[in-house]
TrEMBL record:
Feature: compositional bias, Pro residues: 54-79
Region (Disordered): 1-84
Ranges where the Helicase C-terminal domain occurs: 470-628
Localization of this protein: Nucleus
Cited PANTHER family: ATP-DEPENDENT DNA HELICASE Q4, DNA HELICASE RECQ FAMILY MEMBER
GO MF: 3'-5' DNA helicase activity; ATP binding; DNA binding; hydrolase activity
InterPro entries for this protein: DEAD/DEAH_box_helicase_dom, DNA/RNA_helicase_DEAH_CS, DNA_helicase_ATP-dep_RecQ, Helicase_ATP-bd, Helicase_C-like, P-loop_NTPase
Reactions the enzyme catalyzes: Couples ATP hydrolysis with the unwinding of duplex DNA by translocating in the 3'-5' direction; ATP + H2O = ADP + phosphate + H(+)
Domain of life according to the entry: Eukaryota
Protein known as: DNA 3'-5' helicase
Length: 890
């Protein structure tokens, strides 16, 4: 088996689950005969049509309220068109009208911003956009964005002058003037306003007319009048926002907050959970916020960021997500970004802006946040009002997307090192158990949990059984209403090769589709996302790598070509549809074989004590014990050597740093092998001026005139940080003295203490890792079981197939996220044939390993055994004497 599944940071276990899978395995009929029970609506326009009539009458307050269902009501029954392979449903009304905001956002994505340009060039860091023009929206335009989950607060009669992200994606360029000096900081900026697009074209017309009239002077007067008017409007807006901010500072009332919301964002009211979260934060209470995808979590830290005096730090797991969030900050909030993959001079520029108070919201990776220098800078000169932990489920190893670096985010550290006043943890998908872990780590009291439904109510969910003809089934689905009329669709699949194969198949059938996976060059990925957002590509066939931070409002459907790895993954991925609030369609093709393959694959990825022991022995080898020596572990080669995924190695290293005993200190991850080319001055001349260059010359070997060296080795030799070495060569490059290339991404660390016994440590770590892996397998089982249940429910009761499946999946999702499902506990699995098959595979692999170990034991000590794994079933055992001779036996 040679899969190229995209990593989502998961690694899976060798322990099969023991309960909660349906008592009968997915005993499903032959896929070839099965017609996917997809119920659909007919749409009338080329894009998605707006639903016509409300499905659920508004509640009558005079009547006694029924016991509320925990899940949203299902879509209406569907009339059947029996000649089609799918059942077609009546359209369901949207819960709110088309989103102007989403549309403007969409437009903003169409333009190729500098941010995206940099991304496409493979640069992770985005320099701050310049302080540029501010385009005042025409007075007559008053956006009435939809409110997905509207709170009860009515907005005061304010006349908003919307000043949000300005349509070209470079929203965060206006300095926030919180010191009460109205407009004084801004005049120079607003000079540019008269040259803004709208006024420019207006001016052009006038020039022509007046020139023809020979009326030059009055024309100039009018020009300056116009400019003044725009300046006044801009200043008026700033002062209105300042007034609104002052009002909230004085009294954080619903009315004052709504007025600020209306002024800055143009929204009339808060959505469910937003106001409550904002008020808690402003009151200084750390808060855990669980809102569905696209429900507006970002606003819950953006508004406090305008009010609170200090900096708001937003910790995000992915650089691409940070870039996206930065881009979508309202223009009134100045933002910045720091990540460990930045170039030193970019980081220096952001740090300068931070110190000067220009940046109000800083997006930061957890690695960067925990960097010693970064922490000391904050300790010394900056005040942090709020730390936002975005995608907070990553803190917990029991979540679907555990990030070892998130483990390092502890309230104790955030409060003591950063002097943070308050923490806001946000997620869309967390089980009760994950929430408990996150809240305990971030010391958020249980009373401060704001949790709304994990799922929006504008989805029609369906599942069909599929098999060998899955591609054909997909095509039939996409050629049937409503899918055939949907403008933007995401198809999720598990493996990279599938994205190419399926997208080609769809293209061959005249469907405008493109494949997307993490193996594509960064430039291509950005281009595909861009084209999708600007509707140049209709369908993106992607792995899990696509969609984080994607805020395309009009994605009308999400199709799962295979069963997702967990409920969380499913909810996250379907959450990319219908962000504009319109009814959207989510279909899952369930294929029993794929499920078993995924399960078996998950098992074979598990770690064993032997590999962990080998890894630990390497980490604590004698040469690494030198005091303050910077050690490194090249990820790719280590992964092969120890047969471990990158995430597993990182998890172990993080545990060695943060566990009960601190054995090591993690340093920033970097490409450690540098090839340096001197251009202007001679190496010796530069070495005479710089201790770092001298150390480089000492520690490097010359290959074809180029100096090749190991950055940690150079840094260790003169007791400086690896970042200092990088900064030095970067500075030389800027002066034109050198050029250089970096390769070999590595974990870097220094050893503080060696364990007394590697054996017991590896046994302890293996047990913990196995539990984590076991949890992952169980999550897959639960997802699979929900899909199977939805398939079987479609044949029963009086509701339409689509409505039944929607309800069935909604109820499973609700139970999963709100029950106390213990994913890590050993389960009493129903041992059915399918499981047994998967388990037997694992047992065979374990037996093979035992056999190999036996071989090792049997060979005399002077014979070295090399085991080359050819695939998951076969391996070569090469025995050779402990010398450099050729293999003697295979
Ligand atoms: N009160 C509101 N009224 C109307 N629209 C809103 C409101 N609050 C936020 N929005 C809009 O909802 C959309 C989604 O917001 P946001 O990106 O913050 O969601 P999210 O919860 O962070 O989603 P995800 O979990 O997918 O990142 C944005 O376009 C945002 O402008």
């Amino acid at each position: 088996m040679d899969f190229d599944s995209d990593s989502d940071g998961s690694h899976v276990s060798a322990t099969p689950p023991r309960d909660s899978f349906p008592s009968s395995p997915p005993q499903l009929q032959s896929p070839a005969k099965h017609v996917p029970p997809v119920s659909r609506k007919m749409t009338s326009s080329s894009s998605r049509s707006k639903p016509k009539a409300p499905t659920h009458p508004p509640p009558n307050p005079s009547q006694e309220a029924p016991v509320p269902s925990p899940y949203p009501p299902p879509p209406p029954p569907s009339p059947l068109f029996t000649n089609l392979p799918f059942r077609i449903c009546q359209s369901q009304p949207a819960r709110f009208s088309s989103s102007v905001s989403s549309f403007s956002r969409l437009c903003s994505r169409a333009s190729f911003t500098s941010v995206e340009k940099l991304k496409s060039d493979g640069v992770d860091f985005v320099p701050e956009p310049p302080l540029v023009e501010v385009i005042a929206p025409p007075k007559s335009v008053r956006r009435k964005p939809p409110n997905l989950i509207t709170d009860t607060i009515t907005s005061p009669p304010v006349k908003p002058m919307v000043f949000r992200s300005n349509g070209n994606g470079e929203g965060n360029f206006v300095k926030l003037n919180l010191n009460g000096k109205r407009g004084k900081k801004f005049p120079s900026k607003y000079k540019g306003v008269s040259k803004s697009r709208s006024s420019y074209s207006f001016r052009g017309k006038r020039y022509k007319k007046k020139e023809a009239d020979g009326d030059g002077e009055s024309l100039l007067e009018e020009e300056s009048d116009l400019q003044k008017q725009i300046e006044d409007e801009a200043n008026g807006f700033i002062s209105s926002v300042e007034d609104a901010i002052l009002a909230v500072k004085t009294e954080a009332s619903d009315e004052n907050l709504t007025k600020l919301l209306n002024l800055v964002y143009g929204y009339d009211s808060f959505r469910d959970g937003q106001l409550q979260a904002i008020k808690m934060i402003l009151g200084g209470s750390s808060t855990m916020l669980v809102l569905p995808t696209g429900a507006g979590k970002s606003l819950c830290y953006q508004i406090p960021a305008m009010i609170l005096p200090g900096i708001t730090l937003v910790v995000s797991p992915l650089v691409s997500l940070m870039i996206d969030q930065l881009k979508h900050l309202p223009s009134i909030i100045k933002g910045g970004l720091l990540s460990s993959s930045q170039r030193p001079e970019e980081a220096t520029e952001t740090l300068r802006k931070l110190k000067e108070g220009i940046i109000k919201v800083l997006f930061v990776s957890p690695e960067r946040l925990l960097n010693v220098e970064f922490l000391s800078m904050f300790r010394m000169s900056l005040s942090v009002s709020l730390v936002v932990v975005d995608e907070a489920h990553c803190v917990s190893e029991w979540s679907h997307n555990f990030r070892p670096s998130y483990m390092r985010l502890k309230a104790s550290m955030l409060f003591s090192e950063l002097k943070a006043e308050c923490i806001l943890a946000m997620t869309a998908t967390a089980t009760t158990m994950t929430l408990q872990a996150v809240m305990s780590s971030l010391e958020i009291p249980s009373t401060n949990l704001i949790q709304k439904s994990q799922l929006r109510d504008n989805f029609e969910l369906s599942v069909s059984l599929s098999g060998a003809n899955r591609m054909k089934d997909l095509l039939i689905l996409m050629e049937s209403p409503p899918y055939k009329e949907i403008r933007s669709i995401i198809v999720y699949c598990k493996f990279q090769y599938e994205t190419d194969m399926i997208s080609k198949y769809l293209r061959d059938n005249n469907i405008n589709a493109k494949g997307y996976h993490s193996g594509l060059p960064a430039k291509d990925r950005v281009r595909i996302q861009e084209s999708f957002c600007s509707n140049k590509i209709r369908v993106v066939v992607a792995t899990v790598a696509f969609g984080m931070g994607l805020d395309k409002g009009d994605v009308g459907a999400v199709i799962h070509f295979s069963v997702p790895g967990s409920m969380e993954e499913y909810v996250q991925e379907i959450g990319r549809a219908g962000r504009d609030g319109r009814l959207s369609y989510c279909h899952l093709f369930y294929d029993n074989d794929t499920y078993l393959k995924l399960r078996s694959l998950a098992h074979s990825d598990g770690v064993d004590e032997y590999a962990v022991g080998k890894f630990l022995t390497h980490v604590f080898s004698t040469e690494t014990k030198q005091h303050e020596k910077i050690c490194s572990l090249v990820i790719e080669s280590a992964s092969q050597k120890f047969d471990m995924k990158e995430e597993v190695m990182q998890t172990i290293l993080t545990h060695l740093e943060l566990g009960e005993v601190q054995y090591l200190r993690m340093l920033p991850q970097l490409n450690i092998c540098c090839t340096l080319n001197f251009h202007k001055s001679s190496p010796n001349t530069l070495a005479a001026r710089s201790a770092i260059v001298a150390a480089i010359l000492k520690k490097s070997h010359v290959k074809q005139g180029l100096h090749v060296f190991d950055i940690p080795a150079v840094a260790s030799s003169i007791c400086v940080a690896t970042t200092d070495v990088l900064a030095e060569i970067q500075a030389l490059k800027m002066k034109g003295e050198v050029t250089y290339e970096l390769k070999d991404s590595a974990f870097c660390y220094t050893i503080l203490k060696s364990p007394k016994e590697i054996c017991s440590l590896s046994s302890h770590l293996t047990k913990w890792l196995t539990e984590i892996e076991s949890c992952k397998v169980r999550k897959l089982d639960i997802m699979s079981s929900a899909a199977v249940a939805a398939i079987s429910v479609s044949n029963t009761s009086e509701l339409s197939s689509g409505a039944k499946q929607t309800r069935s999946l909604q109820s499973r999702i609700f139970d999963y996220f709100n029950g106390d499902e213990k994913c890590d506990s050993p389960s009493k699995a129903t041992q059915n044939c399918a499981f047994l098959r998967a388990d037997i595979k694992v047992k065979i692999q374990e037996a093979t390993l035992l056999f190999i170990l036996y071989c090792f034991a049997m060979y005399p000590k002077n014979v070295q055994l090399t085991i080359v794994c050819q695939n998951r079933c076969f391996c070569r055992v090469i025995a050779k004497p402990n010398s450099h001779q050729e293999p003697s036996r295979e």
